[in-house]
Amino acid sequence: MHLGMSGRFTIMVDSSQTPGVFTHAQATNPKHVHAIFTMDNGAVITFNDPRRFGFMEMVGAGEPYRLDGLGPEPLGNSFNAPALRAALKGKKSKIKAALLDQHVVAGLGNIYVCEALFKAGIRPTRAAGRLTVAETEFLVGHIKDVLERAIAAGGSSLRDFASADGALGYFQHSFDVYGREGAPCVTCEKPLTRIVQSGRSSFYCKACQK
Fold it and tell me: What is the predicted pLDDT for the residue at 29?
């Protein structure tokens, strides 16, 4: 199963069966419901996906799968500075695009790449293969830190995202650069810049990121 950009699983549990359960009122449009699972304990799991980028597939053991060849999980032990440096070696693409490439590292989205690059002091326009050893180590550390803080905050709810119980995320209130074009940098107070790279918005500080 993959949620794509807007897919969401919502779990509704009968509160009379499970004391203390609270369901948040974060409604979804019923016309975008593509699958409903009714569980033996009475819980109902609904898959809702307005943009239809998500998918569910049944794959036999050993059969080829569309997610074969993904890069390492960014919070796993296999994602480290040597692994990232090896994946970026010789790449002429910009570091922002390289980090969004799911074959380099799986699970990084536009928001978290912007935030991690800011924390690491690296411009999104830098050539991926030109990062130094020290910069790569610094970047990996900040990627993990940004993701851990986002998870602790419940994710980032801008338009579609909500957790399985309908609760919204709050990490968007902690953004340093994403969505803050023209606002003062939290470090140097100079206005932040927005550019478009491969159809995606990149936000960064020209003074703090080199």
Answer: 77
Please indicate whether residue 169 or residue 140 has the higher confidence score (pLDDT): 140
Residue 150 located in a structural domain: yes
- 8 A C-beta contact, residue 26 and residue 163: no
pLDDT, position 60: 92
By C-alpha distance, which of 209, 82, 79, 75 is closest to 133?
Answer: 82
**Residue 169, C-beta contacts closer than 8 angstroms, at least 6 positions apart:** 150, 153, 154, 155, 156, 157, 161, 162, 163
**Residue 209 and residue 81: Cα distance in Å, rounded?**
19
- CATH assignment at residue 121: 1.10.8.50
Q: Is 156 found in the same domain as 95?
A: yes
Q: Token match 């059969």: residue?
A: 63
